[in-house]
Design goal:
With 130 residues, the protein is an alpha+beta fold. It has five helices and three strands; from the N terminus they run αββααβαα. The protein has one domain: GMP Synthetase, Chain A, domain 3.
Length: 130
């Protein structure tokens, strides 16, 4: 059995509950294009780090993060009954820039100059055996 399996299950439950809340009940326009990319709950179930993906510029990211921080109480109150825990974990929100980094890396790879095919260049460098 994996250690902290309960924390992992609670992480998934929190992610699903917040995602459902975002799609159905939260009216804040700042949160419209935000996606919950992951949740990590500590082993003692006291803290839940919520990772948020936002597409847009830095101002958009700041607006979304402010929206989540201001909605924290409402989010906790709304999802607590769904979790069935004695104590609701403290929610901490973080911007997840993994997708931004991956997109930049893809763009760099595409922009890199194309080299020769390795097989052709290796064959050309080998001396003839006569």
């Amino acid at each position: 059995m994996k250690p902290y399996a309960r924390a992992e299950r609670i992480s998934v439950q929190i992610q699903m509950a917040i995602t459902e809340l975002l799609s159905k009940k939260i009216q804040d326009p700042r949160l419209e294009m935000a996606t919950i990319s992951g949740v990590k709950v500590t082993s003692d179930l006291r803290i839940a780090d919520v990772y948020i993906t936002v597409f847009g510029d830095k101002k958009r990211v700041r607006d979304v993060m402010d929206g989540f921080k201001k909605s924290k109480g409402y989010i906790k109150k709304s999802i607590a009954p769904k979790l069935g825990l004695k104590f609701m974990p403290e929610l901490r929100f973080f911007h997840d820039d993994t997708f931004d980094k991956a997109a930049r890396l893809d763009a760099l790879i595409e922009a890199a100059p194309k080299g020769e095919d390795r097989e052709d260049s290796d064959a050309a460098d080998m001396p003839d055996k006569d």
